[in-house]
Amino acid sequence: MQERMGKQNIESDAIVEKIQRFTVETPSWGYGDSGTRFKVFHWPGAARTLREKLADAAEVNNVTGVCPSVAIHIPWDQEDDWQAVKAYAQSLGLRIGAVNPNLFQEDTYRFGSLSHIDKQVRQRGIAHVHECIQIAQAVDSDIVSLWLAEGTNYPGQDSLRQRRQRLLESLQEIYAALPAGMRLLIEYKFFEPAFYSTDLPDWGTSLQLSQKLGPQAEVLVDTGHHPQGTNIPQIVAQLLDEGRLGGFHFNDRKYADDDLIVGSLNPFELFCIFNEIIDASSEGNTNAGRIAYMIDQSHNIEPKIEAMIQSVYNIQIAYAKALLVDRSALRQAQRESSVLEAYRILQAAYETDVRPLLAEVRRRQGLGPDPFAAFEASGYAGRVAQERTALTTASGYPGA
Ligand code: RM4
Ligand code: MN
Ligand code: MN
């Protein structure tokens, strides 16, 4: 292993600095109660309001040092006074990140929102995204992140081409309202809740729409949104090459969109994703430097804050390992078509135990070396379990 790391010192300042600069956004919806369509199990101390979610996110940031922003979902996190929210977040050392419009929880959206056959419904959806753009401006966020729950359940239900055209028109109206510097991220998912066709089923569709819209539109890759066996690192490589990789929603899965702890099931895939990004970056790809790394995860049976820390921890491990890949040796092996040598160079980095390195990075930031121990020592979980009483939530997501 060490010989394959070449002359690279794994605690080199350059690597430590890169690890320190890497941040990941946590989702407000990961702190509230959530579950499956069968049952929501209340977690004692689960956050009930945006302020409580922000307070929890601040704890994650306090022990990891790498989660300074929080994504919000509107209207789940709707507030009257966004300046007050911004100030509150700042007081916790946080800022609001991506604003996610919710276009799937109103009766009018039964057959879709932005692709709906009825122009009035489409206008309602567009107006909601416009409102989210204003919220993003108010809280100084530069990302609006769009996921659509729409499509059809049966062949013939609607014209697939017309749905596509309506969606493009709606997105054009949304895009026209984006202020300079704000990005519109377009997320795709191949199924659910629509089961025959989904209007944004894959990265190709999101990419094509982004390209039609303009440079402020980019693709969001949610790692749980692909058919089994899809090569996500290759999708990442292609989007980087097109300069349209806007961001990630990290989570892991075994079967479908399971939203499990990041890297819990397929840590090697996560490593390969970061390997593509770092590889592109080493070649001067500018897209690689402006990717929004976000977690999209809900916890059904796990302690929520600790689960979020675990996801952040696993992401950092995968990222640090990818930084350790000996790029020049890899290039050489590729030039020589040394299939196994190239593979072993990746393997050597992947098999390296980076936990001591990450502990050292935390120490240098003035944090405890072990974020789980630091969280436990804070007594925060016990405190909020005492203070917060349960809200009754009927279905899988808060606000449902
Ligand atoms: C979707 C998708 C979106 C998230 C919704 C609630 O599966 O991943 O990003 O906002 O769930
Ligand atoms: Mn997502
Ligand atoms: Mn999802």
Task: Classify the beta-strand content into a percent band.
Answer: 5-15%
Order of helices and strands: HEHEHEHEEHEEHEHEHEHHHHHH
DSSP helical segment count: 14
Class inferred from helices and paired strands: alpha/beta
Shape: globular
Residue runs with pLDDT of under 50 for 5 or more positions = none
Q: Please compute the radius of gyration using only Cα atoms.
A: 21 Å
End-to-end Cα distance: 50 Å
What helical percentage do the residues reach?
Answer: 40-55%
Q: What about the largest sheet?
A: 5 strands, parallel
Mean pLDDT: 95
Total strand count, please? 10
List the bound ligands: beta-L-rhamnopyranose, manganese (II) ion
Describe the strand arrangement of the main beta sheet, using strand numbers: 4-6-8-9-10
SSE layout and pairing:
Elements: H1 13-21, E1 26-27, H2 50-64, E2 69-74, H3 82-91, E3 95-101, H4 119-138, E4 143-146, E5 151-152, H5 160-176, E6 183-187, E7 197-198, H6 203-213, E8 217-222, H7 232-242, E9 245-250, H8 267-282, E10 292-295, H9 304-323, H10 327-335, H11 339-350, H12 355-364, H13 371-378, H14 380-387
Parallel strand pairs: 1-2, 2-3, 4-6, 6-8, 8-9, 9-10
Antiparallel strand pairs: 5-7
The protein binds beta-L-rhamnopyranose and manganese (II) ion (2 copies).
One manganese (II) ion binds at residues 222, 224-225, 257, 296.
Give your account of this protein's structure.
The chain has 400 residues and is of the alpha/beta class. The chain has helices at residues 13-21, 50-64, 82-91, 119-138, 160-176, 203-213, 232-242, 267-282, 304-323, 327-335, 339-350, 355-364, 371-378, 380-387; strands at residues 26-27, 69-74, 95-101, 143-146, 151-152, 183-187, 197-198, 217-222, 245-250, 292-295. The strands form 3 sheets. The protein has a 5-stranded parallel sheet. Strands 1-2-3 form a 3-stranded parallel sheet. A two-stranded antiparallel sheet has the order 5-7. α2 packs across α9, α2 crosses α13 and α10 (327-335) packs antiparallel against α11 (339-350). The longest helix is centred in the N-terminal third of the chain and has 20 residues, at 119-138. The structure holds beta-L-rhamnopyranose (RM4) and manganese (II) ion (2 copies). One manganese (II) ion is lined by residues 147, 187, 222, 249, 296. The site of beta-L-rhamnopyranose has 8 residues, from loops.
